[in-house]
Each structure stands twice: as structure tokens, then as C-alpha cells.
């Protein structure tokens, strides 16, 4: 017996089970979503936006050089005084280069860079959170397709059984061993079976469309998923792992750190800034000076200077104080958001563990229900054939078995999806945890400190 047949043990759906040729695995589906899903792509773009804040912050503390060039025509010039020297040219060209080297700003640039790097790290955790959410959705869609394909097969088989039952009831009526009521009951159950098959088919189409949206291609020949990795043994274990690894908590904590650096930046605005400066300038009057005065005053020349500047806010209308208070308030917000994230994840971990355990127990009871209903149906068929029970009892047993089989399929789907959701809450369901090829993994431009 293959693993797929074992998974659906006791359910007559061999006709709809995918073959092993060109089958798609859950790992391949997850990798497809990782490559193609626009939600992941958008989060990566957000990381690139955050990464550019680091060189922008660094630039404020780096030397700058700027140049300028000016050409000027003097359209109105005065006359030289008698015996004086005329130095107003008719035209002139001036070129300048100026350099500014920040020396000390009381930690403003350093704080800005630290805050930017912290936010890059937070964006990485945001990507991990997005990956976990997406992969949970992909697992759900994958299992939905498997379940709905099996349910369609069960309903198709049920339609075939009902058609045979109608034919048998008609034949027995002709033989005089069944009345018209049995035929009508069988035909009514056939109509119900056909409507259930149509409903199951529509649900399968919906599941396949959701799969395409998440993964980027159609679901074809899906294999059964592999067993989940080792799961926590108790809610406490789940919570402890989640507190240590959940990316939402990690992101909130790093955002809190970034808010602390923002306070340093805001406070630095109230202190002086020291810079070294230098420049060089060259002028050329382009031969437009009076020939009598030009040689004395010089037709062209070069000047240069070096020095230091001190820029100190004396009166800024309360701007620096407001910036500091605002930064302190933002850190208070970040503190509370980090605390809220921890509480949220604790609740999610406990809830996910309970859901997974409940779904696992339902799977066991559903399997027992299928086995019991199979035995009931076998007995009903024998007794109806012997004339000991009415046909309606057999029809009811057929429907109860179908319901039990669908319940078992749904329970197995729910147990697997709940287990993966628990892993995601615990921070164990991002791309690195799923053993993707390292060449596929997103490589950040800026490495967090």
C-alpha cells in the first residue's frame, strides 16, 4: 500500500488519486510561491527601501564637495575717476570648489545610522513574518485541493452507487419484490448525490483558483504532504519557542531599539555642530578690463581658503525640544507595541496548539466513524437484500458513510494546516526553516549589526 493510499485508508477514491508521474510536492508549491507571489516581492522591495536609509544617514557625516561656475556680462559699468583705477570688467567668469567636512555633531549622524540599521533588521523580520503567513496560506490551499479532489471522487462514486441502487430498485419492482416507494426513495437520493457532486466540484474549482493565486501556477497531480517536523509537547513549549523566534516579536523589539536611537538624534539637534571647510576660486575677466588698469589689477587670479565653522542653535522656536518630546513619545509607542506583540503571540501560540491538538483528535475519531459506518453499510446491504430492512435504511447508511468519509478528509486537512500554522506562530516556517536552496533565499544589501 502506498503512502497516499494509506492516508486515505478505507475511502474508495482510487480513481481520483494523482499518479506519481510529474507530481508536484508541497515543497515545490512553497518554492513556487516564494518565487512568484507578489506579497513576498512587495516585502522585499520594502527592505530595499529601508536599506537605502543607511547610506542616506551616513551621508550626513561624510565630506561634501560642491562646485559652481558663473559667467556674467556687466551691461552697465561706471567711468573711472580721474587718476583712479577702474576694476569693473565688462564680463567675467568665476569657478569655485567648496569642501565641507563634518567633524562633530554630538551623535546625530551616529544615531541616525544606528536607527536606520535597526529598521533594516526590523524589515528583515517583517519579511520572515510575511513568509510564514504566505506559506501557511499555501499549505492551506494545497490541502484544500487534496481534500476537495478526494471529496469529488467520493461524491462521484456515491452517484454511481445511487444509479445502481435506482436500477436495482426498478428491477425489483418489476419482479414484484419492491414497491414504487423504494424506487422514489432511490431516485431522490440519486438527485441528492448529483447535487452534492456539483457542489463539491464547485468547491474544488474555488480551491484550485486560490492555489493559483498563491503559488502562481495551476495545481496538477499534488502529492501528499510530508509529515510535520517535531511539534511542541505542550502549550508552554509552544509559547517559549514563539517568544524566542516569532518574527513579529523580534521586529517590534528592534523597532523599539530604533526609537531609542531616534531620541539621541533629536537631542543632538540642540547642540552645536563643528565642521572643517575649505575652498578654491578662480576668476577670469576674459580680457574685458581696461588695458590701462588691467595689468595692475590682474585680468585673472586664484584664491583659496580653509577654516572651521561652528553652527549652534540659539533660538529655534522650540523646535529641538518638540522633536525630543516627540521622539520620547514614539519610543513609548514602540514599547507598548512590543509588549502587545508578545501578548498577541502568546495567545496565538496557545490557540494554535489547542486547534492542532483538537484537529488531531478529531482525525482519530473520524477514522473510527468511517470504519463503523462501513460495517453498518455492509450489514444494511445484506439485510435489505434479504428483505429484513427497507431500502431507506440502506440509503441512509450510504449517506452516513459518505458524510463520515468527508468528515475524516476535512479533519486530516485541518490537522495538517493547524500544525503548520502552529509552526508559523513559533517562528519555524520561514524560507530558511523549510530547507529552500540557499541560492533562492533573499540576500540583503545591508547586513544588520
UniProtKB/TrEMBL annotation:
Record's signal peptide? 1-23
Q: What InterPro entries would the database entry show?
A: OMP_efflux (IPR003423), T1SS_OMP_TolC (IPR010130), TolC-like (IPR051906)
* Family annotation (Pfam families): OEP (PF02321)
GO molecular function ontology, one term from the record: porin activity
Where in the cell is the protein located?
Cell outer membrane
For this UniProt entry, what's an example GO CC term?
efflux pump complex
Instruction: Name the keywords, alphabetized.
Output: Cell outer membrane, Membrane, Signal, Transmembrane, Transmembrane beta strand, Transport
SUPFAM superfamilies according to UniProt: Outer membrane efflux proteins (OEP) (SSF56954)
* NCBIfam families (UniProt xref): type_I_sec_TolC
Describe the family membership recorded for this protein in Swiss-Prot or TrEMBL: Belongs to the outer membrane factor (OMF) (TC 1.B.17) family.
The name under which this protein is listed is Type I secretion outer membrane protein, TolC
Protein species of origin:
Sphingobium indicum BiD32
Amino acid at each position: 500500500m502506498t503512502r497516499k493510499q494509506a492516508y486515505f485508508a478505507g475511502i474508495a477514491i482510487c480513481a481520483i488519486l494523482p499518479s506519481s508521474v510529474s507530481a508536484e510536492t508541497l515543497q515545490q508549491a512553497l518554492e513556487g510561491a516564494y518565487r512568484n507571489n507578489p506579497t513576498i516581492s512587495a516585502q522585499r522591495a520594502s527592505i530595499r527601501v529601508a536599506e537605502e536609509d543607511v547610506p542616506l544617514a551616513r551621508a550626513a557625516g561624510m565630506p561634501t564637495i560642491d562646485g559652481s561656475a558663473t559667467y556674467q556680462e556687466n551691461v552697465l559699468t561706471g567711468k573711472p575717476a580721474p587718476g583712479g583705477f577702474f576694476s569693473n570688467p565688462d564680463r567675467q567668469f568665476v569657478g569655485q570648489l567648496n569642501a565641507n567636512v563634518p567633524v562633530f555633531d554630538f551623535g546625530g549622524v551616529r544615531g541616525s545610522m544606528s536607527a536606520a540599521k535597526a529598521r533594516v533588521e526590523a524589515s528583515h523580520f517583517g519579511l520572515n513574518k510575511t513568509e510564514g503567513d504566505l506559506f501557511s496560506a499555501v499549505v492551506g490551499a494545497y490541502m484544500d485541493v487534496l481534500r476537495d479532489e478526494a471529496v469529488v471522487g467520493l461524491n462521484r462514486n456515491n452517484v454511481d452507487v445511487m444509479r445502481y441502487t435506482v436500477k436495482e430498485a426498478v428491477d425489483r419492482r418489476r419482479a414484484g419484490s419492491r414497491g414504487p416507494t423504494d424506487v422514489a426513495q432511490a431516485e431522490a437520493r440519486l438527485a441528492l448525490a448529483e447535487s452534492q457532486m456539483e457542489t463539491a466540484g464547485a468547491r474544488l474549482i474555488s480551491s484550485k483558483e486560490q492555489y493559483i493565486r498563491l503559488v502562481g501556477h495551476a495545481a496538477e497531480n499534488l502529492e501528499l504532504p510530508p509529515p510535520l517536523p517535531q511539534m511542541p509537547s505542550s502549550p508552554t513549549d509552544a509559547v517559549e519557542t514563539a517568544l524566542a523566534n516569532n518574527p513579529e516579536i523580534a521586529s517590534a523589539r528592534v523597532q523599539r531599539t530604533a526609537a531609542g536611537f531616534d531620541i539621541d538624534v533629536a537631542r543632538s539637534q540642540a547642540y552645536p555642530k563643528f565642521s572643517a571647510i575649505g575652498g578654491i576660486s578662480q576668476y577670469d575677466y576674459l580680457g574685458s578690463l581696461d588695458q590701462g588698469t588691467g595689468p595692475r589689477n590682474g585680468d585673472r587670479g586664484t584664491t583659496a581658503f580653509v577654516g572651521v565653522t561652528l553652527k549652534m542653535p540659539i533660538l529655534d522656536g522650540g523646535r529641538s525640544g518638540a522633536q525630543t518630546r516627540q521622539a520620547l513619545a514614539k519610543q513609548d509607542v514602540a514599547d507598548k507595541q512590543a509588549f502587545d506583540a508578545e501578548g498577541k503571540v502568546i495567545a496565538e501560540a496557545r490557540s494554535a496548539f489547542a486547534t492542532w491538538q483538537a484537529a488531531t483528535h478529531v482525525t482519530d475519531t473520524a477514522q473510527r466513524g468511517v470504519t463503523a459506518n462501513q460495517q453498518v453499510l455492509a450489514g444494511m446491504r445484506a439485510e435489505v437484500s434479504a428483505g429484513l430492512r427497507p431500502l431507506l435504511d440502506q440509503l441512509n447508511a450510504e449517506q452516513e458513510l459518505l458524510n463520515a468519509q468527508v468528515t475524516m478528509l476535512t479533519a486530516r486537512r485541518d490537522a495538517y494546516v493547524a500544525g503548520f500554522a502552529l509552526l508559523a506562530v513559533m517562528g519555524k516556517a520561514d524560507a530558511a526553516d523549510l530547507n529552500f536552496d540557499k541560492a533562492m533565499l533573499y540576500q540583503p544589501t545591508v547586513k544588520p549589526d
